[in-house]
Design goal:
By secondary structure, the chain is of the alpha+beta class. Helices cover 62% and strands 8% of the residues. A hairpin with a 2-residue loop joins strand 1 and strand 2 (16-20).
């Protein structure tokens, strides 16, 4: 089986690289329930660091990120939460599933896990250079945006100062015009 196909089925959950039971079943060319039955018959070989059941939120997160289930396979709405197998769990599956296909697929899967680990530990020089270039471009873009923002901000500040000055002058004139003048009182005036 092609390495890139397997690598695309390796996900990260709980800080571990895992593969899901239905992906493994399709690679081993067995039904998911058959794979899970084999595992349950040998459950002592699969401690929590080898295999665990996903929580509903983890499963929903995977489905939304990678659009895992459509209408084929397990259906649009799965009845059971899938099991996640770590690298150790996948290695243990070879002792549970003893067909020649399972052994060959298992070797491919182990190579894929190793390749993923190597990519994480030692990214290629081209990838590092590409990332450095992207970071530099982003840095330049951000500097340009802030420079434009500051130019606009300075222009706006000058405009606001002019508007404030005009409003202050208008307010002073209005106060002078509407200031009450001393008038004679109207009505009964009390003698002194």
């Amino acid at each position: 089986m092609e390495l890139s196909i397997i690598q695309n089925k390796i996900y990260e959950i709980r800080g571990m690289k895992i593969m899901l039971d239905f992906d493994l079943a399709s690679m081993y060319q067995v039904e998911t329930r058959v794979l899970n039955q084999s595992v349950k018959r040998n459950i002592e070989r699969f401690p929590d660091d080898f295999m665990f059941e996903l929580t509903k939120s983890e499963y929903d997160s995977l489905r939304s990120q990678f659009v895992i289930l459509k209408t084929e396979g397990r259906g649009k709405h799965s009845k059971y939460l899938p099991y996640a197998f770590t690298e150790l769990g996948v290695a243990m599956l070879s002792s549970v599933l003893k067909s020649k296909t399972a052994v060959q697929i298992n070797m491919s899967i182990m190579r894929a896990f190793i390749a993923v680990r190597q990519l994480l530990i030692n990214p290629t020089a081209n990838e590092v250079k590409l990332l450095q270039k992207e970071v530099e471009e982003l840095k330049e873009y951000i500097e340009e945006v802030f420079a434009d923002y500051n130019d606009i901000n300075e222009d706006n500040q000058k405009s606001f100062d002019e508007i404030y000055l005009a409003l202050s002058e208008l307010a002073a004139r209005q106060k002078f015009i509407t200031e009450p003048k001393a008038r004679k009182p109207v009505g009964y005036v009390k003698p002194k």
